[in-house]
Structures are given as C-alpha cells and as structure tokens.
Amino acid sequence: MDKIKKNILDGYIKLIEKNNEEDKEKKWLIQNCKNQELLMILQEITILMLHVLDCIQKHQPVKGITVANELNMQRGTITKITRKLAEKNLIIKECVPNNNKEIYFRTTKMGNELCDLHQLLHKEINKNYVKFIDQYSKQELMFLEKILDDLSKTSFVKLNNSN
Length: 163
Fold this sequence. Notes:
Elements: H1 2-17, H2 21-31, H3 36-42, H4 47-59, E1 62-63, H5 64-71, H6 75-87, E2 91-96, E3 99-107, H7 109-133, H8 138-152
Helix pairs in contact: 4-7, 5-6
C-alpha cells in the first residue's frame, strides 16, 4: 500500500507542476490563426491575458473591478493586463463623462477576433476532454470527483499558529 500512496503523491505533484499546457494552447492558437497582425500579437501575450480579454468581451462595457472579481484576481494585476491589452489595440478604455476615474473596457474588432479564436480552442479542449473522460465508469468518476473536491479543500503544509 505504501507504493500506491507514493505513486498517488507523485502523480499529484506532477499535476501541480504541469505547466506546458499553456505552451500547447499558444501553439494551437498560432497554428489556427489566419490574421498576420494577430499572429504577431499572439507571440507576445499570455493565456492569462486571453482570459482577461474574454471576460471583457463577455461583460462589456465592464469596469476593471468587475473583471478582477470575475476572475478572482487582484485589481492591480487587471490594471497591468488591461494596459497591455490596450497597447496591443485589443481593448479600448472609455471614461464616463465628467468622471475620469470611472473607466470601462470594450474589446476592439481585433480583440473580438482573438476571443473567437480562443473560444475555438476551448471547444477543441472540451471535445478532447469528453473523449478522455468517457473512458471511465460513473462510479469511477464519482470517486474521482470526491478525491478532487477533498484535495481542493486540503493543504499538506501545516503552519504553527504562534501569535
């Protein structure tokens, strides 16, 4: 049983460390992009920037605080990302008349095109996920669901509470 427990821990660590999916996602986007200008932009942006762009498109016109709450991110991070997206002409900033502090974001034509491509990627991911997950029985999936739920609520790092 100890060998099985070690294999489970090793698998868990591998999942945490798995970070090449973002590279694969960017490669897919680049391979499937027909717009040369967008291809140049894709070289310079992150998947996180794409998720912010998607959120803006979904809720536009939208304030940065709404995007931060929706994506469970800090406001400062959203500020930096929206600045970069605006520099790349993927979004525009609009101020409310007589209130320069209240800024709303909208996607541009180029931003919408990139969002559409990103949504195609997610359709591809979902299609492949369904193929993968369909190989398991309902009982196996229910067990996995419980394990993942328990894992998400657990930390294996215990801190001493010395106040």
